[in-house]
Design a protein that fits this description.
By secondary structure, the protein is mainly alpha-helical. It has 4 helices and 3 strands, in the order H-H-E-E-H-H-E. It has one domain. Strand 1 and strand 2 form a beta hairpin. The mean pLDDT is about 80.
C-alpha cells in the first residue's frame, strides 16, 4: 500500500522486509540496544493507548477500535492497541461487530 511506503523503507534500514528473516545478532551492540528500548517503549505506548480506548460504563471499559485500513487512517498505535487483546478477530464471522469489554478494578 502506498501509505506504507515510508514505514517499509524505515524497516528496510535494519533489514526487515517481506519474506526476510530478521537477524538480530547481525546488529551492532548500540543498534541492538536501540531495538530493545524501542520495543519496550512501543509496548508501553500500546498499553497506554489500549487503556484509554472506549469509555467507562458502570465500572466497565467498553469500546470498539476495530476496522479496516480506512478506519485506522495510518494510526499504527490505535491498530496495535486494538489488536493487543484480540483473539483471532473476525475468524468466526468477519461481518460481526468487534467490541471489547474490560472490568476496571479499583
Amino acid at each position: 500500500m502506498a501509505q506504507e511506503t515510508a514505514l517499509r523503507q524505515r524497516f528496510a534500514e535494519i533489514d526487515i522486509g517481506a519474506g526476510k528473516r530478521f537477524d538480530f545478532e547481525k546488529l551492532l551492540l548500540e543498534d541492538k540496544a536501540a531495538v530493545g528500548f524501542g520495543i519496550k517503549d512501543g509496548f508501553e505506548k500500546i498499553k497506554t493507548k489500549r487503556e484509554a480506548l472506549g469509555k467507562d460504563i458502570n465500572g466497565w471499559r467498553v469500546g470498539s477500535a476495530f476496522g479496516d485500513r480506512a478506519f485506522y487512517h495510518n494510526d499504527w498505535l490505535l491498530r496495535a492497541a486494538a489488536a493487543r487483546d484480540a483473539v483471532a478477530p473476525g475468524l468466526v464471522d468477519p461481518a460481526a461487530p468487534r467490541v471489547w469489554v474490560q472490568r476496571r478494578f479499583p
